[in-house]
Structure formats: C-alpha cells, structure tokens
Amino acid sequence: MTTTVEPVRPEVAPESVAARRLMDRIFKARELAVIAVLVVMLGATQLSNSEFLSQQGIRDLMLNATILVLVAIGQAMVVITRNVDLSVGSVLGISAFAAGLHLKDGGHPIIAVLLAVGVGALFGVVNGALVSLGKVPALVVTLGTLYIVRGIDSIWVGSRQITASALPDGFVDFGSDGIGVVPYLALLTLAALVVVAYYLRNYRSGRDMYALGSNPEAARLAGVPVRARVMTAYVVCGALAGLAGALYLARFGNVDSNTGNGYELVVVSAVVVGGVAFTGGSGTVYGAALGAVLLTSINGVLPALGVSSVWVTAINGFLLLLAIAVDRVLALRVAGALRKKAAQSRSARHA
Amino acid sequence: MPGTTARSRRLTLLLAAVTALTLGATACGGTTKDDASKDNGSAAVGKADPDAETKKGLTVAFLPKQVNNPYFTTADKGGEKALDELGSTYKEVGTSSGTDTAGQVSYVNTLTQQQVDAMAVSAQDPGALCTALKQAMRNGVSVVTYDSDTNKDCRQVFVSPASAEDLGRTQVELLAKQIGGKGEIAILSAAQTATNQNTWIDVMKEELKKPAYKDIKLVKTAYGDDDAQKSFQQTQGLLQEYPNLKGIISPTTVGIKAAAQYLSGSKYKGKVKLTGLGTPNDMRAYVKNGTVQEFELWEPAKLGALAAHVAVALESGQITGKEGETFNAGDLGTMTIGADGVVSPGEPTVFDKANIDEYDF
Amino acid sequence: MPDPTVKSPVLSRLGGAVRWDTSVGVLLVVLLICSFSFVENFGNALNVSFLIGNTLPIALIALPMAMLVVSGEVDLSVASTAGLSSAVMGALWNAGMAIETIIPLCVLLGVVCGLVNGLLVTRLGLPSLAVTIGTLGAYRGIAQIVLGSDSVTDFPVQYLDFGAGRFGDTFLPYAVVPFVILLAIAVVVLHATRFGRSLFAVGASEEAARFAGVRVKRLKLAMFVSTGVISALTGVFWTLHYASARYDNATGLELSVIAAVLLGGIDFDGGKGTLGGAIAGVFLLGTMQNVMSLLNVSAQSQTVATGVLLVISVLAPRIGRRISQARARGRTAAPPLTAPST
Lengths: 351, 361, 342
Hints:
CATH architecture of chain C: Orthogonal Bundle
Mean pLDDT of chain C: 86
Structural class of chain C: mainly alpha
Radius of gyration of chain C: 21 Å
Helix content of chain C: over 70%
Radius of gyration of chain A: 21 Å
Strand content of chain C: under 5%
Oligomer: heterotrimer
Distance between the termini of chain C: 22 Å
Number of domains of chain A: 1
Strand order of the largest sheet of chain A: 1-2
Low-confidence stretches of chain A: 1-13
C-alpha cells in the first residue's frame, strides 16, 4: 500500500519529548472522544427507553462486546506492526468447533478453552510465518488463509453442529452469569486487555512493535528482530481469536461451520474506529477495545430505540469513515503545530 | 489552484452530460414497469399418465439453500432414503453460504450440464434462479422446489413444508395458549428478503385479526438475518423496547435457537414465552430447562422424501404438476397436487417436554 | 507452472524472464485444454457460455481494479457499489421509471460512489484500504435502506435476454461484447498511453512520479471514479443476468475480484503487473470453479483451493526472485553485505 504520511521529524531531543507528549495527549483525547460518543449514545437511549440500562441491559451490553473486544485486541496488535489479519473470523469459527467437540465428548471445560486458544495460536503461527518469512503483503496472505481455514472448517465440521444440550451446564451458565452485573466473560476479556496493554507499553519487545509499525526499515536497522515481533503479533492475535471462539461457544451455545463468517470486516472497523491507524505504529489496544464496545453497542442501541436494523450496516460504515477522517485531520493539525513550534524555537536560538 | 477549477469544471461538464443523456432518454419515453410484458411460459407440458411405470436408475440432484446446514442435511437424507427405495441415484450439491444466489445459479447450470434427470431446489431467491431453471426444463430436466419456492412458472411442483396457512395459524395458537390469550407479542424473523418467512408472517397477522385474539397485540417484527449474534441482539432489543412483552414467535430455526439461548441466560427466562419453528436437537436443552414450553416443525426428512417422490413421478410421466393429479409417495401415502402445483407432507409436529426425546434431527 | 528449481544457466536466466502473469496465462490454456479433453460436459457451447456469463461480473470489475492496484491503491467497496446500483435499479423500476433512464442514473451513481472514495483518499490522504472498508459498509447499508426486503424481478424481457442470453447456439453470451470493448480500452489505456505509464510510475514510487511531473492525485481520482462506474455497470449487468434486483446482490464479490487480480500477477504493492495477467487470473479461477463443480468437488474444497492458489500466487514469484538473486550473488565474486530488500 502506498500511504502518504506527513513527515513529522522532531529535530532536537527536548522537542521530541514535547512532541511525544503532544501525540500522547492527542491519542488520549482520541480515546476520550470514543468514550464521549459512547456515553452520549447510551445516555440518550436510556432517556428514551428506561429499560435500556437496567441490570440486565448493562450485562447484555458487556456480554455483547466481549467477543469482539477480544478479537479486536489481537487485531490491534497486528495492525500496530503495520500488518493485518483477515483470517480471524475463520479462526474463531474453527477453534469454537474444536472446543465444542471436546466438550461434547465429555471433556473438561478448561481443557476445551485451552484447546481453542491452541488452535487459534497454531493458525497465528501459519499466518505469521507466511507474512514474516515470505515477506508477502499481509492483506493478501490472510485473505488466502481466510479462505483456507474456512474451507478446512467446513470440510471438517460438515453439517454437524454443537448445540447447547451437548455442552455441560456449567459451561453455558459461565457464558451468561457473573459477579453482580459484571459477567465472567467480561472479566476475562478485561484481564486479557490489561495484560496485552501492559506488555505493549512496558516491555521492550512491546515497544518494538510500535517502532516496527512506524518505520520497518529504521526498526530493522536499529536492531529490532522484525520477524520475531511480527510472529508474536500474529500468534497473540490467533490465540485471542481462539479464546474468543471458546467464549462464543459459551455465550451462544451453538457452533456450526458458518460461525464467525464475515467477522473480519467488523473487527477491522472496530480497531480503526478505536484509533489504531492502518499505517501502523500508533494507537492503543484500549482504543481498539473501546471501538469494539462502540460498534457492538450501536447494534444494541438501535433495536432498543426501535430503529430498524437495516440502518446498522450503513451507520457502521459511516462511523468508520468519520473516525479515519477525524484522525487524519487531527494528525495534520498536530504536524502543523509541531512544525511551527520547531521553527519558533529554532529562530529563538538563532536570535 | 487552477488545476482544481479546471477539474471541477470538467466534472460539472461530465455530470451535465450524463444528466442530459438521462433526461433525453426520459423524454423519448422508454421501457417502464407498465409496458414490460410478462413472460408466461408455462412449465407444465405434456399429459400425465397416472398409471405409467415408475422409472428406476434416475439421477436426482438436491440443491439446498446451503450445504452443511443441519436442517437441509436432514431433509436431503430423507430424499436419499426415498430414492434408494425407488432404485434411483441421489446426489447433493450446493453453496456453503445461504445467500450466494450467483453460486446457486451456477450449480443449476452445472446440473443441467451433467444431464441429471431431475433436480430438487430450495431457492435462495424467487426470481434469480428462474432463467437457469427454465433452461434446465428446456433441456429435459424435471424441476421440483422444496422448502423455498421460486416464481411458480420456473418449476413444475413446489413441495411446501406444510401449508403456509397451517404454519401461521398453529404458531399463533401455540403462543396464545402459553400467554393466556392476552398481551404484547413480537416476531423474530430471518432476513427481510426471506420469502417463506414473509408469507408466514402475513398469515399470522391475518390470524391475529380474529376475535379470539383481540387481546393480543403484535408490536413488532424484528429481523435477525438468520445470524446467531444478530438474532440475539434483536431479541434483547425487543425486550428492552417493550418491557411488557409476553411472548415471541420466531418462525426460523436460527432465530428461535438464539432467542432461547438469550432468554435462558437472562431474567426473562420462563416469563417471556417463546415459540416458533425449531429443530428438536437445537431446542432440547431449552425445553428441558424451562425456557421454552412448546414449539413446532414439520419433519424435514419427510419433506426431502416427498421431493424425491415428486421428482421421480414427474420424470416417470405420472404427473406434470397440474392441480388435482395424484401419485404414490411411498410411506407418505397417495398425494394430490394442489393449486399452483403445490404439495405438502402434512401438518407440522408440535414438540414439548414429553415427546422431544423421541426425535433426533 | 514453471519449475522453480531450474539448473542450466540458460534456463535460469529464462526463469527470471518468465513473468508470473505469463505463467498464469499458460496455466489457463493448459487447464482449458485438459478440461476440453478430459472433463465430461465441459466442452459444449452451453457450458462455456455459463462459464463466461458467471465469470463476467468478476472480469468486469477486475479491469479497473487491476489498474487501481497498479497505481498502489485498492477499492474494497466495489461489490457494495454494484449492490447499491442493483438496489437503486430495483427501486426506480418499481417506481415506474423507464429502464433507459435508470441505467444512466446507475452510471451516475457509480461516479458518485467513486468520487467519494477517491476524494477521501486523495484530498484527505487517507489509506484507501480503510476508506473503502468504510464505504463497503456504507454503500451496502444504503442499498438495504433503499430497497429493503424487496426483490425486483420483472424487468423487460429484451433486457433480461441481453443479460443472460447468448448468440444463437454459440458459447458467447451477448454481454461478452461490452466486456471485450472495455477490455480493449483498458489494455490500450494501461499499456500504451502516458496515463497508463503514469499509473505504473505512481505505483512504483509516488514521490518519484510526483517529481517527474505526474499529477498523482488527479490520476488516482480518475481511477477511483472509473472503478465506481464499472462497478455500478456490473451491478446493472448482475441484476439482468440473474433477473433479480436485491440489496445483497454481489455480496463478497470484492474478495473474488482481488483474489483473481492478485493471482494474475498484479503486485499488491503497486507498480507491477499486466491486464492480460489479471484477466487470465479471473478466468483461471472461474474455469477452475466450473471444472471442479462438474467433477463434483464440494464447495468447501473449492474454497480451500482458491485460498491455496492465492497464497501460492503471491509467494511463488517472491521465492523465485529470491532464488535467482541468491544465484546471482553466488556468481559475483564479492557478495554484497546486505541483501537488497525484495
């Protein structure tokens, strides 16, 4: 992809710190903006329909978001390294079925969840290997694996399906119960979110991913092990898609060969709405998670307002366009401001 | 910038040209809906001979809306069994997505190419398959639709799961009984374009106008697109929008399953009644845990078997698809073709806690 | 497929010269010959006309898509544009408008859809992938709002015949005529004009092209608009071919188009590829699907085959290039310290 990124070149050290602070603040503002939209939307819905934020309603909102949030966390990591994984929907489907089959045969729920994560990670390794070793555009490779994994899934699953009656009661209850209004699934997702965010922010290898995404060539010259980092991102993304598959099974109690079909576009939208740029190197997993919550909440809000579901697709599309356009305009403003500041301090020094 | 003005001027020019072209075409008149002559090439030709011998060694292809869909697999297995008994060969092809109309058309073409004797098709779209199916009939292939029909001149016989009147009426009856004959109810359907869903919903609306149901109010029809997650959220939306909702009818197997799964994990379990069309295997858990009392469905295997019998009878010349013709449908007994070439295996079966374990599909 | 492990120096130099798109063309010819000889029911006129008719929508959109990818951009909203055009066509027809008015309006719609994509990409400098994923949702959503649950089928017979019929008993569908004309135009534009050369230049290096005086933004905008127009026309063709206007027409077609274009050797990073290769890729996939259906290969296995082919098509040229580079390095006395990045 050819992308036109406005060159932002901080020239001297103190200014670069200032620049980073400014960028940080902008991105925080970006996440705050998503939160604000979310709050306004939920508040407005609550005003017109008092049932919306009942205990049950809040729990539903959280439950609806969990699966998409999990997949979005992994996807965000991949997108930060300037790649993309379109095969997540297919991977989610096949891991959900693997877990379901294990449970159907009387297996232990924990093993089933680990199995799903394992299957997901395995496909992550395949994607990572193709992208990092073959140096092939990620979009094309994962489009290929989208087809391949879906095909394998439907050959393997055939017309079989896992229904709620085949699952242990405890597992299905786990999908809807929780502590107070907070469902277990949401807690699990939150834990995954915090861990990944901490890793990306505080570990060297996590920071490497940002470096890699902002400028692959520079990162390579600076000694970042490019292949290993890209591989890590894909494996985490696959594993999280697998975990999401297991949770899908618990939540919906039903898996067949079509599960997760077409999920990739929703996930990518969520990540971008959450402020993770396609050009790599920017955004946070918190943002991606918020984006996912926003998109699923729209799906919940429209029926609660009595708006026909035909609007959902269009609204999601426009939201995505709005998000990237706003990001771009902000980035241009910031670049402009930085340049001006740099020029001022330069002239101040020369004077 | 001079470039911009030049460009926008050219753009305006282009738009103007297209608009002028458009207006010009309008001014000259043109072909509108009103002058479009209807192509009424009737499919049924020749004369039926009810005593003709049943042919053996035919190849009948089943083309369901979606392969790997448990419902259609059960139906097609029924067809396979019937064809086995009749001494003919069965095959099944189809798309893995339920809305891949182009894919279904190309399968019809392939089957025509392979010179199968007859095909049983569950149409994803009433109009889109027409050209291909007519071409198949011209090439001597007998065409039967099952579960979902095409326009009626594009096939010879439609094997309807159960008559639309029966299905609409009985589902309203089931729900009315469960909610004690009064309160708000809603319908959770599949895609907005699903022909059979819309027919049943129309019947339900008619049925609800009867005095016996004067205390029941249908507040909304929601569409879950036969997608588990969407159906889930549509159910949530219905319950939030109408806090006094007493019951939901979901005449689609995916919808009722998703609605049941949501209800069983929510505070509405047992309070909001749910009925509709579902398969016993899907619904077993929810009937046993008290989320659902009763629901119904025809037996898909019978539907497939009847489609197989119709295909063989057509190919043997025992019927042509005209109203009033009769033929022998094996275990299902003697069947008579109704108006518009529709035949159906009978009333749906109602499943509840007592009988659900007797069924496995 | 050419054997990548060629030994003789002459052949290895040839291996470097034989481009992927040529290989795809050869592969297509081989597949066609094999199918004509060995696959029952493949070779007759009716089947070939089915094959062409069903592949035409992908082939049509592949023309501008190939050029767009050459210039380094991509448009994922093509199928939604086609769907929107189909939905609008259905809605206007239901409203009693003449079909001769509707079709130009659909073209106009294509212009607008393309302009939205193009302006967002060129004016705001947004990545086309993100923009067109957005419009993919938006256009499909509008289509759903416009036509809703309707499925319009009663278009005039002469138009439907054009969409689905063929010349007498030959294997050529009527609709092949406009396609061939568009193909000829596209080949000339891409490979024999300044505009086409500029597209390659922009795809190879936008910066360099700009310095060389190419008006990059205008070029890209023109390509997005053409893609929109052809997609809208494909929507009209789809509607007539399948005699059905629905909002969900052509759903997912974007992936098939991109898969076929990339299979045909158009480099996703821009700057490389030929239209011949892209069209060979389209018909290779179409023929494979037709043959596999005739041989009773299930839809699922076909999905896997498509995916594998796609991955191979991007991997193979790169691996081949790396092998020939390695060999070239082996021959030179002093190998460079760092490998040139591929």
